[in-house]
Amino acid sequence: MEDIAIVRKVEDNFVHVEIERSGSCDGCAVHGICNLNDKTIIHKIKTDRDLKIGDRIEVNIKPSLRIFSSFVVFIVPVLLMLCFYVMGKFLFKLSEDLSIVVSMLGLLLSGLFIYLIDKLYANKLNFKIIKKI
């Protein structure tokens, strides 16, 4: 996912860039990973490029982080739901109806899990500078 950023601060081998929040940020369950403040995202990126304050650059989020966040948001809730259902049905010998209710509890807990992952990885987002625009 490429985004356009503006260099706001330069120090040693790092630049602080401001990325405008896009429409896709609104629906993202792990938006805290990007440190969303009102409408802009500020990140510190290590670089050896000769950049100046005000330069426009194109940045990219590591594909591994995109895959990880997609897995957390889309797969983990389904897995927890299935695990809780199986535990309720076969481990605790609950009825079908109660097992479904227990699986919904797993879905709720997955929301908490996503929230915790969001907070845990909030400062570990790595951008790569692709090019100066």
What do these coordinates show?
The longest helix has 29 residues, at about 65-90. The chain has one domain (about 1-130). The protein is built from 3 helices and 5 strands; from the N terminus they run ββαββααβ. It has a 5-stranded antiparallel sheet. A hairpin with a 2-residue loop joins strand 1 (about 1-10) and strand 2 (about 15-20). The model has no long low-confidence stretch (mean pLDDT about 85). It has about 130 residues and is an alpha+beta fold. It is about 45% helix and about 25% strand.
Q: Rg, please?
A: 20 Å
In N-to-C order, the SSE pattern is: EEHEEHHE
Show unreliable segments.
none
What fraction of the residues are assigned to beta strands by DSSP? 25-35%
- Quote the average pLDDT: 85
> How far apart are the termini?
16 Å
Oligomer: single chain
Q: Report the sheet with the most strands, covering strand number, pairing sense and barrel closure.
A: 5 strands, antiparallel
**Strand order across the biggest sheet?**
3-2-1-4-5
